[in-house]
Amino acid sequence: MTSTRLLWRIAGLAALLSTLLFVFGFAYAVRDILYPQAAGPGQAEEAAPVDHTKEPDKLQIVAIGDSLTKGLGDTTGEGYVGKVKRGLEKTLDKPVFLWNYGVNGIRTNELLQYVTDPKSEIPQSLRKADIILITIGGNDLFQFSQTQKPGDATQPALNFNNVRKQMPEAQERLGKIFAAVAELNPKASIVYLGLYHPFLDYDPAREGSRLLGQWNAKAYELANRHPNITVVPTYDLFEKQLNQYLYSDHFHPNAEGYERMAQRVLQALQ
Amino acid sequence: MGSIYPLVQNETIKMLKKRRFLVVLLILAILIPMFTYAQMKVAQNYRKQFGTQDWRVTTQQQIIDYTNRLGSNRVPEEIKKYIRVEVKRLQYALEKNVDPQSPNGVTFARDFMKNAVGLFVPLLIAVIGSDIVSSEHSTGTIKLLLTRPVSRWKVLLSKLLTLLMFVALILLATGILSYLIAGLVFGYAGWTAPVLTGYQIAGDELSTANVHAVPQWLYLIMEFGLAWFSCAVVACLSLMVSVLVRSTAASMGIMLATLIAGTILSNMVSSWQSAKYFFMVNLETVNFLTGQMPPIPGVTLSFSLAVLAAWAVCGLIVAFVVFERKDILN
């Protein structure tokens, strides 16, 4: 009987005290949600000391860019970035880590924002990288592909006037991206992949090819201002057998296409 | 009130002797290690994939993943609304440099309660609550109880108070067990870590104007306070069902079915507006602390609390009226 009484005392007391605590918490939470007060000065936390020194026994890849970085069209999900990582793992005997910040559909202006935004973690990640891989520009030039499907046989007309108009500004932003990334990390090997022509078979006059040639040439020129940026061409990879290396959306590479791109990058890195 | 105290004491002892509370503790003690292990695996996986445990990198990666889902045509617009709010919240955490998910025992307890308050803990309350009256019928002891010189409403009130005591005990046990068990793996620190709260959702937009940091211990008390209210409402409704239905199995079945229906409804409720008057879809008031979208756009904390309170009051009125007038036959 005494043990029962003790049990009741303990249970009753614990229940009473915790109920009081919960009622207090409830009242406090309701007040806090309904009448929130903005943080006073000094409430915002100072940046915690993060160790920026790289661990020597690993290789860090950071990939930024558009859907090619994300790997859209590769059914294995790797993309050229994943394949580069795998390739490096095979040849190096240290762990290779990949931070892939590729976002589908972005253009130079958005990427410029990403690499210069001090609030996001992307600039910090770029600082910690040993290898930086960049793809950008495809959506700036071929933006009409979103609305006008060139794969549609009834409307094969491609309008390159827009491309011609957009190009100078996009090139300027590409230069700014190169400068920002090279400044963030002067030690890393930075690789930029040139553009290919996904609609070559709808462009018998090769109007787009000339424009892409200008873009890629400008990319070389911009990259050469920074000693650690390499431009890897991809135009020729998709010139002869376009459909064999393109995904069914007729815009992104397929797994094979990405594999060829990755081989190029690996050769450039080694 | 003098005669209430021994009645509550009697009910509490009955409850403890029936071992049902022990079963609840056992369920917690088995399930929490499972969740801890799962969480540990997630952390290990991240480390293997990214080669770092820096929360800023994984948070940024999460933002990028969400951004990609926002760009996809295959993601429905309702889900995109949630994702947009979530992206904003994560970006804000990066900006303020406050880890939204620092791995430690306190954070685990916090997360566990947040996820458990919608279904898991209410289920445990229902297990305890739905037989509190009906079992007296099935064992025949209701006659012994009601032939005492105590008015019927006092008997039922003592049962209600006992149930509320056990609500507190279950929440306390959930908190303590999850802290102790997860602490084994993630460490016992983290009481003073800052947590961001005060997000406001206006339409589809997340406002961070009033966001402020509170220490995690205070956040935990706030969270458990909100969870306690939801659970108390479930307890009141369990009591009602227990009065209305004589079979313990049936009353438990009704409560479980209702609660589970709530989680299913939550997914569809954005299309069926009037479902917001069900208590089951309003249990997760904790979300108002974390700045997540409520299941029904436009629902506020006041609304959810009012709905819950209304259900509890109605449930209690029905329970007391029916219990007063009930014929006890066997």
Written overview of the protein:
The complex is a heterodimer of chains A (270) and B (330). In chain A, helix 3 crosses helix 11 and helix 4 runs parallel beside helix 8. A 5-stranded parallel beta sheet of chain A has the order 2-1-3-4-5. Chain A is elongated. Chain A is of the alpha/beta class and 270 residues long. Chain A contains 11 helices and 5 strands. Chain A has 2 domains: 36 residues; 211 residues, 3-Layer(aba) Sandwich (Rossmann fold). In chain B, helix 9 crosses helix 13. Chain B has one domain. In chain B, the strands form 2 sheets. Chain B has a two-stranded antiparallel sheet with strand order 1-4. Chain B is mostly helical and 330 residues long. In chain B, 69% of the residues lie in helices and 4% in strands. Chain B is globular, with a radius of gyration of 22 Å. Classes of the chains: A alpha/beta (270), B mainly alpha (330).
Topology overview:
The complex is a heterodimer of chains A (270) and B (330).
Chain A: H1 2-34, E1 59-65, H2 67-70, H3 79-91, E2 96-102, H4 108-116, H5 122-127, E3 131-135, H6 138-141, H7 144-147, H8 160-184, E4 189-193, H9 207-223, E5 229-232, H10 242-245, H11 255-269
Parallel strand pairs in A: 1-2, 1-3, 3-4, 4-5
Helix pairs in contact in A: 3-11, 4-8, 8-9
Chain B: H1 4-17, H2 20-50, H3 55-71, H4 77-96, H5 105-116, H6 120-129, H7 134-139, H8 142-146, H9 152-186, E1 194-197, E2 200-202, E3 205-207, E4 212-215, H10 216-244, H11 248-268, H12 287-290, H13 301-325
Helix pairs in contact in B: 1-9, 2-9, 3-4, 5-9, 5-10, 6-9, 6-10, 6-11, 9-10, 9-13, 10-11, 10-13
